[in-house]
Amino acid sequence: MMYSVAPIYGLDEIIEYQEIEYNGYHVLACKTPEGYILERVYSTNPQDFLREDLRPGKILENALIK
Question: What Pfam families does the record tag this protein with (predicted)?
Answer without folding.
Answer: YlzJ (PF14035)
